[in-house]
Amino acid sequence: MNIQKKLLLLFTAVILVVFNYAIYAKEQIIKNGETVFLELAPVDPRSLMQGDYMILNYDAAIKLRDDFEKLKKNKKTKNNSYKPIKKTGYVKVKLDNDGVAKYMGEYTGGNLASDEKLFKYKNSGWRVIIVPNSYFFQEGKRRIFDDAKYGVFKFKGADNYILVALADKDMNIISSKDIK
User: Fold this and answer.
1) pLDDT tens by residue, 68-122
2) Residues 162 and 33 sit within 8 Å (Cβ to Cβ)
3) Model pTM score
């Protein structure tokens, strides 16, 4: 076997190990992570191009966008300019006793309390998106998700999270598995 084939096999093995570890790490977050409920804002229940899924909008994203708008209006300097708003960053939330995340503002650094978490955001200038902003579900099961009130996340650490489900106003997980 020549050196090129050996290198190809080595790189292939490294790539497979890295991908499998990433999958394992995400599975561990889902299995052992802290559950956090993030309140949803109005959502779009279907995409004709991609099948059944919801575009998610979060209450915290709307509040952060409102804060950015206030900054634009109130932070004028002598030369009539303002500090630029970041394109990406983190929204800081504080968990109540039920695990519901309450908006605290944009994270600007520093230590977090044990009941504080960070959600990554993207700012397009006219809309703030908390990532992830979509939830896919089984085709034909859209109506059971119409009452979704919370995105359910599993956290490992302050800013390492996965969206695992949607929940209703009583924080009951909405599942399409048992509905025919």
Assistant:
1) 888 777 765 545 555 567 889 999 999 999 999 999 999 989 999 999 999 999 9
2) yes
3) 0.76
- Please name which of 130, 161, 174, 175 lies closest in space to residue 30, comparing C-alpha atoms: 161
Distance between start and end Cα atoms, the chain = 55
For residues 110 and 150, membership in a common domain is answered with: yes
Residue 14 pLDDT greater than 70, yes or no: yes
Contact indicator for 167, 152 with CB cutoff of 8 Å: yes
> Domain containing 10: what range?
1-32
Count the neighbouring beta carbons within 10 Å of the beta carbon of residue 53.
Answer: 17
Does residue 15 sit in the same domain as residue 84? no
**DSSP-derived 3-state class of residue 14:** helix
Closest CA to 108 of 128, 121, 126, 90: 90
Looking at the structure, tell me whether residues 147 and 84 fall in a common domain: yes
Q: Domain tally for the chain?
A: 2
> Are 98 and 171 contacting, i.e. CB atoms less than 8 angstroms apart?
yes
Cα 102 from Cα 116, distance rounded (Å): 9
136, 127, 96, 130: which is closest to 113 by C-alpha? Answer: 96
